[in-house]
Design goal:
The complex is a heterodimer of chains A (97) and B (137).
Chain A (H helix, E strand, L loop, with lengths): L1 E2 L12 E2 L12 H9 L1 H4 L5 E6 L2 E6 L2 H10 L6 E5 L12
Chain B lengths: L7 E4 L1 E2 L5 E2 L1 E7 L9 E8 L7 E2 L1 H7 L4 E9 L2 E14 L3 E10 L7 E2 L1 H4 L3 E5 L4 E5 L1
The chains are: A alpha+beta (97), B mainly beta (137).
């Protein structure tokens, strides 16, 4: 399935575009994504909270994005990777009867 | 037949239970990204039903953004939420920074969504069997 972006029927949402920044990393948060895939058990303790993950360490957490972001910046992380740890869902299964 | 040569592959996002979902980690900021400005890396899920990208309103505060216009109703996943519009730069390192008029919710959201305004910037394909997203600009 390919979704092209060549049609412009949505008004004027795109305002400007710049070139790729040479200071940007090659890919965003590859290490953190791998850690999340392999450490769901460690994230369970943070259910219902916003978490800042830097490499393989949770450096800030809490219910308020602004506070958590500031905690991360106070620890020297200028661009925090922040995400919400959702509550555990029940396993999908058959409904008997 | 239309042939598309995709240049980049991204893994699906995995939530806190390790469940894969179709989304990307993106960088958001009030200015084109460079290392000295305030920016955040956030997860955002692709929502082909939404015309506009929607983010938790707390991110606008954390980034020091200022809204324009009044309150609007926008689709956020399966819900309609009240939101305000902000000019927001979205950065994927391979594709540069793009300025959109994004919606930031007035009430808390736990997931951000990339709508069709984002899909206008790229061509992408979903490879479910490999849990990957293929993209070319």
């Amino acid at each position: 399935m390919a979704m092209t972006s060549t049609e412009n029927r949505l008004g004027t949402e795109l305002i400007a575009t710049t070139g790729t920044s040479s200071s940007s990393p090659a890919r965003l948060r590859t290490d953190e994504g791998a850690w999340r895939r392999t450490h769901p058990d460690q994230l369970r303790a943070y259910q219902g909270q916003w978490v800042v993950l830097e490499k393989n360490e949770i450096i800030a957490s809490g219910s308020d994005v602004v506070t958590v972001t500031q905690q991360a910046r106070d620890r020297g992380v200028n661009t925090p990777y922040i995400f919400y740890v959702e509550a555990m869902r029940e396993e999908e299964g058959e409904i008997s009867g | 037949v239309k042939t598309v040569a995709f240049t980049h592959i991204f893994d699906y996002l995995h939530d806190s239970q390790g469940v894969p979902s179709i989304g990307l980690t993106i960088r958001i900021s009030g200015q084109p990204y460079h290392q000295s400005i305030s920016a955040l890396d956030v997860d955002a899920y692709l929502d082909t039903l939404s015309t506009r990208s929607v983010f938790d309103g707390q991110f606008a505060t954390a980034l020091g953004l200022h809204p324009f216009g009044g309150t609007i109703s926008v689709r956020s996943g399966s819900h309609i939420v009240q939101a305000r519009l902000y000019q927001l730069w979205i950065t994927l390192p391979q594709f540069g920074s793009h300025l959109i008029n994004a919606a930031f919710s007035i009430t808390p959201l736990t997931r951000n969504f990339l709508g069709r305004d984002f899909l206008r910037l790229v061509t992408l394909a979903i490879e479910e069997r490999n849990l990957s997203i293929l993209i070319v600009r």
